[in-house]
Amino acid sequence: MPTIIKSMKYEIIRPVSCEWPIFQYILKTLQQESFRLKNRVVQYCYQQEFLPVAPTDKPFRTWLYQVISDEFGIVHAKNLTSTVTQAERVWHQSRQAVLAGRQSFPSFRNTNPILLHKASIRHGAFVDHGRHVELELSLLSRVGQQWVRSLPHWTEEQRAAMGTTYTVRIHAGRNLARHILEQWINGETPIRESSIVYQETKHKWFLNLTYAVESSQLPHDSRVLGVRMADPNRAVMVVSDRPDWSCVIEGSAVKQHHLAMESKRRRLQRQIRVCGSGRTGHGRKKRLEPLTELEDKVSRFRATVNHTYARRIVDTAVRLGCSSIRMDDLSLRSSGSAFLGAWTYFDLQMQVLRKAADKGIDVVKMDPRILERQCSQCGAGSKSSGPNYHCEHCDYQSTTEENALRNLIRLPMERLPRGEETR
Question: Which residue ranges form the domains of the chain, and what is each CATH number?
Fold first, then answer.
């Protein structure tokens, strides 16, 4: 069975082997080193394309790792290797576009996560009545240990607690988050390369634990589930061999929540203009704090709704025995349309992709322009647009959405080249 890589976020409660100021200082420094390291790797890869910087008697990657190791020696060796590999991967993904002049070479920000090799994370046991789990994280090299001990603002007792590995406690969570930790501790679920991130809005550090699971494989047949984002408020599902069956996912709750949040946003903006000194605090950040909390609330609501919709779509495909799901490719629609501006449909598609992969179901994205312009009866192309569809070749008439739904489940894959419009 195929292996799927997933991740789960855990809050780092506190360090055990040292005090919070020391641990936070180390994490902040490693975060700065991480983004500088990745930018330097991309810089060397870009220079190698035009004016080779590596000696001819040594492979470029070997030379690159040696140079990076000398410059960023405080990072743990395994974590440094993972960071260099990720930066190289990002460069190779954008290499052709950069060399062709279509985009600038990729860069990384100072909020970049701290990568951890899988061997740099070792689990302990559940503590505090099962609420927390202790982990050992390898963060610094020997050079990094000597560097952090040499800083003048530590006491002798604090210097003695500084090493290359640090023990921390993470929140075990509930349900799936706790189940993943239990399987990892019992040796049932292996972990992969993970990361530590800092969430600015919550002022907290989190561990993104990456793990591998085996997906269940459904028997493959010719049945296809088509999912069409019909308008900003709903999605429609149809099945290839059941023309009389369809299912509509209504989005009235989404629309009502969107209108309520927009009304509240405008009200808060009016209040900000006339609020007193007790509300403003020391500056702009305090004044805009209610708006920031509102944005977080909207983001959480959208994520929850997308999770619910995606689960319903995938569960429907499993229940009907569909081997694949076909959806219209939203990246080929107009980015300025009201359809894309009303809801995070791209996040919904990504949720469907991840949940379908767990069940062994393929997800195929179709060109919506072909779906709307090609006749579902005779296959002839049409230039007509609007809510109603009329084929000039066979005189077939229907709505554009109904015609697109029929094409979504009936047209063979070879007749739907991505990005090519039917004429």
Answer: 1-214 (no CATH), 224-366 (3.30.420)
